[in-house]
Write a structure and sequence with these properties.
The chain has 324 residues and is mostly helical. The chain is built from 16 helices and no strands. Helix 4 runs antiparallel to helix 5 and helix 13 packs parallel to helix 15. It is elongated, with a radius of gyration of 27 Å.
Length: 324
């Protein structure tokens, strides 16, 4: 074979190879388009099939992997979502959103130390990204690192002073560290920006209760319950305010509502027992206090920290199926 023939053959092979690559790319894009259409209609299992097909053809496309992670999250396959986000950051090590979402899913699995590392990376990569501080602060709350969490929420407020969540979470941390005046002020700011956030009324009510304003605390708890009626733990804080106002029958009623939803929360028995004692029900009070003591030894719970609606309540689903 002549040199010209060999060159011609080589060029032909290159053309064929290039056409194959183009065909594969088109095929992957076709599956990706179908996957997105099915995902946007909420057909996540069908979408996952198409994402799998697209990724088999092109396993290094970070966007397909990122989107599949969101679909896996929607299907409650958190380990699968984490695996996909991990592949994304291997391909794009500066992908802030992949670290953010991976950290959130690790948090959902209660792997808080690992989640914190991802949020640290987010803040390092994007120091002016306010949401990174919000997520890291919430993770630090779950690790009981309250002062560090306050620092993160404060940094977020410096970056975005109009975000009601930052004030809400900072106020909650300030309640934890017994800075009740600061907590009250921050919850006021949060409610001025978002007057429908029931749990902010609850946190302000806690601050008021500990600042010796039980009537103001009860009013806040009433509003919190009206706005978030399904959060039964709010009734526990209101029971405390009623006890301080000497409405022992009302306190018992609220405690019984909590016990009907969670029979293992020791503080509800403590409050009910104390209220029963005030009303002269000595045997019932003694039984409640024994139950409370037994549960406390088992759970070693923190009563005031448990009366909220969840740390990661700010996480909402975006249009692409991922949380933001």
């Amino acid at each position: 074979m002549t040199i010209v023939s060999r060159l011609s053959a080589g060029i032909l092979l290159l053309v064929i190879f290039s056409l194959c690559l183009i065909g594969c790319g088109d095929n992957a894009q076709k599956h990706l388009n179908i996957a997105r259409s099915r995902r946007d209609k909420g057909n996540f299992r069908e979408a996952l099939v198409e994402y799998n097909a697209a990724i088999r053809i092109d396993p290094t496309d970070p966007q397909s992997l990122f989107e599949r992670a969101g679909v896996r999250d929607s299907l409650n396959d958190l380990p699968g979502a984490i695996a996909d986000y991990s592949r994304v950051v291997m391909i794009r090590p500066n992908d802030t959103m992949a670290y953010l979402h991976r950290g959130s899913r690790k948090g959902d699995l209660e792997h808080y130390d690992e989640a914190l590392k991802d949020f640290d990376t987010v803040v390092s990569l994007a120091p002016n990204f306010a949401t990174g501080y919000l997520y890291r602060g919430c993770c630090r709350e779950l690790l009981s690192q309250y002062d560090s969490a306050i620092a993160d929420f404060s940094h977020m407020i410096r970056l975005d002073s109009t975000n009601s969540l930052a004030y809400f979470y900072r106020g909650r941390m300030e309640n934890y560290v017994k800075r009740f005046h600061d907590a009250f002020d921050d919850e006021n700011r949060s409610l001025a920006l978002d007057p429908k956030r029931g749990i902010a009324y609850l946190e302000r009510g806690k601050a008021r209760l500990l600042l010796h304003d039980p009537q103001g605390a009860k009013n806040d708890c009433d509003t919190a319950i009206q706005l978030t009626p399904d959060s039964y733990l709010m009734y526990l804080t209101r029971a405390m305010t009623k006890s301080d106002l000497k409405d022992y029958a009302g306190a018992i009623q609220d405690c019984e509502y909590v016990i009907a939803h969670d029979r293992n929360l020791y503080f509800s028995y403590t409050l009910r027992g104390e209220a029963r004692e005030k009303l002269g029900g000595h045997s019932g009070a003694a039984a409640d206090l024994r139950t409370a003591d037994s549960l406390k030894k088992v759970t070693n719970a923190k009563p005031t920290a448990s009366t909220d609606a969840g740390t990661f309540e700010f996480q909402t689903k975006s249009a692409d199926g991922n949380r933001k």
